Amino acid sequence: MVATRGVKTRVASKPWTRGARLVFLLLVAGVMVHLPALTNRSYNSDEAYLATQAQVLTGGGHLYVDTVDRKPPVVPYLYAATFELTGDDDLLAVRVLAVLANVLTAWLLAGEARRRFSKDRAGLIAGLLFLGASGALFARDTQTASFEVFMLPAMVASVALAARRRPLGAGLALGVATLVKQTAATTLLPLVWIVWSSATRASERARRLTMLGVGVLVPIILSAVAFGPHDFLRWVFTSNEGYLDAGGDVGYIAGLFTRQTVVFVLANAAILVLAAWAWRRRREDVDLWLWTASGVVGTVSGFRFFGHYYLQLLPPLCLLAARPLLRASRRILTIVAAAVIVPIVIFGLPALLGPEAEPVSVARDLAAYARRHTRSDQRILVWGHLPEVYWYSQRVPATRFATTGFLTGQSGGRPADHSAMRFATPGAWDDFDTDLRDHPPALVFDLAPADIRNAKYASPADFPRFGNYLHRRYRVVDRVDGVMVYAPR
Question: Which of 60, 107, 350, 416 has the most neighbouring CB atoms within 10 Å?
Fold first, then answer.
């Protein structure tokens, strides 16, 4: 209160729905719901694979030559830059970046909700709904420094820029998002609609759509030039046919889809109910429903249905869910908050307090063995799916593959026995043979006898191209946690 000529005047307080205060609220909420991420515990092999790639890159290796994956370049280099900056290769720093990426996504959604609904309250609601939803799935899957987490800020920015009639900027943002994860490209569906519907003349529509397309292509073309068109296109776009193939596994995939989708629905019931409620105003939200449809396409791509794939659905759903809450009472808002918080606790506490998974414990033992029996400049080979061994041991993989799934076809989202030469990535065996010839491993760890991550279904004996090489040139020297250890004869 201030007095002016005897009259008391109330000074208006700054709202918590804009500016620095909004950022502070979103940051606090983001940290609270992502506490399981703010540890150095290994939750899944994707992070270990990326950490291994980062070690190769910081050691002078080249992406798509010395280390490969079916992914665009942004996240491996983000890991590598973080390791270089911190001087350490643990996950905490990159996990902090992941939490900040979630907060940035929430802030961008807040801005778009405020523009769309012309209410400051809408921005805060949409931002908090997103942060709650992003923490309401299995923490070991979604609360990691994954491709989807780093993809979402650029993807949301592309929609926000398109809505503000900046088609070139929208295209550039989507191009960057696609260089984080290919499935971001599905967001072209709502972007085309937004750009098309924002103009009335055919010539203006054509011009804006051209600008949008140019914006998308520029970052991708520049990346192809930087990494070499052949290697870049092969590993990012054209080598995925085996990964996308669902032939013969329809029953398993249907069961996986049902389980994962049920979990997603239960964890995000409040947001889904609110979004369904917003269907009554669908004519005003055509772009959001198209965005949701594009998210569905991105989620089902590859028919793998990992939990983190569902993160792509959250931004449009949270904007839709914000609409029914614009005039909601405090009681309704409290009920919604409780419905969002409960799944966060249910899914987050087991990851935060539960024991370390057995494969990670085995990986630590194998890494310790590798450090004791090899020099830092020697390479090792893990036959199976346990990239944590390379990461923990700080030993470079003998081949460009941090797992042998490229050779066997064995990977998540498929039955354990989905393993055979015919499922191999085209050309992968030739690359594998070349790498073994150029730098044979000082140690080989065969996970098949211990059946680590279903390794028994991909024994070297089932792949004579490697089994014969192993038999001729190596001998068994030890056994660690059931894993056979080979050294050169």
Answer: 107
